[in-house]
Design goal:
This protein is α+β, with helices and mostly antiparallel strands. It contains 4 helices and 6 strands. Strand 3 and strand 4 form a beta hairpin. The structure holds a DNA duplex.
Length: 153
DNA sequence: GCCAACGTTGGC
DNA sequence: GCCAACGTTGGC
């Protein structure tokens, strides 16, 4: 059964345009156990995800991607020069894992957080919960389809 | 830049 | 195991 996700990234760091250019990328740098566990335990190749631009002006949904490789160790955790370096990670115990995602499409229209908030059928999204900062969130097919429809002309 | 909310750390 | 202090996230 295909699952649906919302994955946040700051466009300053890596945007939907970067993903469009690269085609595929590893979703590295996740350093939160709950988000990691979604990638390790729940995500399957073929799942679809909304690419969400956080800390953007305005924040919102920028496009769609698909999971194209199941979770494997995040090498940035063992790279001393990376800002995601974690001294507790080692080859025997990588701690941090990530999936690979591939570009599907950039929305014709950016769907801002404000619009998401104002759409009744999206009102139960985890994203809209107060203080919710989890960077990878499960969403329903209904959420996914609704946002896709808003984003595609 | 501010700050509320959250997760993590570390002393006890 | 508690919890205060701290660092981070992310909207505004």
């Amino acid at each position: 059964m295909k699952k649906y996700w919302l994955m946040k990234c700051e466009p300053n760091a890596y945007s939907i345009d970067d993903l469009e250019k690269d085609g595929v990328t590893d979703w590295n740098g996740v350093r939160n156990y709950q988000a990691r566990n979604f990638m390790m335990k729940e995500m399957k190749v073929g799942d679809l995800a909304i690419y969400y631009h956080s800390n953007a002006t305005p924040p919102g949904a920028a496009g769609i991607m698909t999971i194209c490789k199941e979770a494997y160790p995040d090498s940035s955790a063992r790279d001393k020069k990376s800002k995601y370096y974690d001294p507790k990670a080692c080859d025997e115990k990588p701690i941090w894992y990530h999936v690979d995602v591939s570009f599907v499409k950039k929305f014709d229209r950016y769907v801002s957080l404000k619009e998401i908030r104002e759409t009744p059928s999206l009102s139960d999204m985890m994203l809209l919960k107060r203080g919710m900062r989890l960077s990878i969130q499960p969403i329903t097919k209904k959420h996914f389809d609704t946002i896709s429809k808003m984003g595609n002309l």
